[in-house]
Write a structure and sequence with these properties.
With 248 residues, the protein is mostly helical. The chain has one domain. Helix content is 76%, strand content 0%. It is built from eleven helices and no strands.
Length: 248
């Protein structure tokens, strides 16, 4: 398994996709700090926790990275060498899941470093003291790591199921950015929102998105369970069904 994980990291490093996606995630994270501070919306520790929670928006980028991690290999047939060396598709998918979960953690760290580098001095200049153990700040920081780690696996699983990167990536982005928001505002339908990935993220992090939709969110543990299911069920199905087909 260690050999497989090392091989996956080598595959990631040999392309520039991870680098440009990381820059995009860091840029968006910076904007989510600069915007609220510039508008004067950050006045309390809870507001600061909201700012740090915004780093979780990088889950879109991590999802794309995970989806490309399997669909790109299928498209270019580079996965053939992997399955010849490791015939077990379960082992291949497990190695990929570990790799992209770790990459999600790395992206979370990079995004939070950017946010902290901007937010902490700005808060001090505004006369605010950051109470690291209070105001939901620990939940915000820890939740970002959890969300991004699991979304690496979510992307991987969706990619394994759909196989085609020109389908998996656009469909995933449209669902995450558009359809979830539509579902959350439709009466009688919005009750399913807490069980969608976005609803799970809202439950894990101290953010107000789900509450803005007037949706009753799950407790923290429920959000974690829902996101775990979105991460591992598609990955397992992809290994059991899609990747067990002929990939050449």
């Amino acid at each position: 398994m260690i050999r497989l994980v090392r091989a996956e990291f080598l595959k990631v490093r040999t392309t520039q996709t991870w680098f440009w996606l990381l820059l995009a995630a860091m840029a968006v994270s910076a904007l989510f700090v600069i915007g609220p501070f510039a508008a004067g919306d950050v006045r309390t520790g809870s507001d600061l926790a909201q700012v740090f929670s915004a780093a979780s928006t990088a889950y879109i980028v991590v999802f794309v990275l995970g989806a490309l991690g399997v669909t790109g290999e299928i498209r270019h047939q580079t996965i053939t060498a992997t399955v010849l060396a490791t015939p077990s598709r379960w082992a291949v998918v497990t190695g990929k899941m570990i790799t992209y979960a770790v990459l999600g953690v790395a992206y979370a760290l990079a995004c939070l470093i950017v946010q902290l580098a901007i937010a902490v001095p700005w808060a001090a200049a505004d006369g605010m003291s950051v109470r690291w153990g209070q105001d939901d700040i620990p939940r915000a920081l820890g939740g970002v790591f959890l969300v991004l780690a699991l979304f690496g696996i979510v992307g991987l699983g969706i990619g394994a199921l759909l196989r085609n990167q020109m389908v998996a990536v656009p469909v995933g982005i449209i669902f995450l950015l558009v359809l979830q928001g539509i579902i959350a505002v439709i009466p009688k339908v919005k009750v399913v929102y807490p069980y969608l990935p976005g609803g799970a993220v809202d439950s894990i992090l101290p953010i107000r998105t789900g509450r803005g939709f007037d949706v009753h969110l799950l407790p923290f543990a429920g959000g974690v369970i829902v996101l775990l299911l979105w991460a591992f069920v598609p990955a397992v199905l992809g290994a059991a069904v899609t990747l067990n087909r002929d990939i050449t």
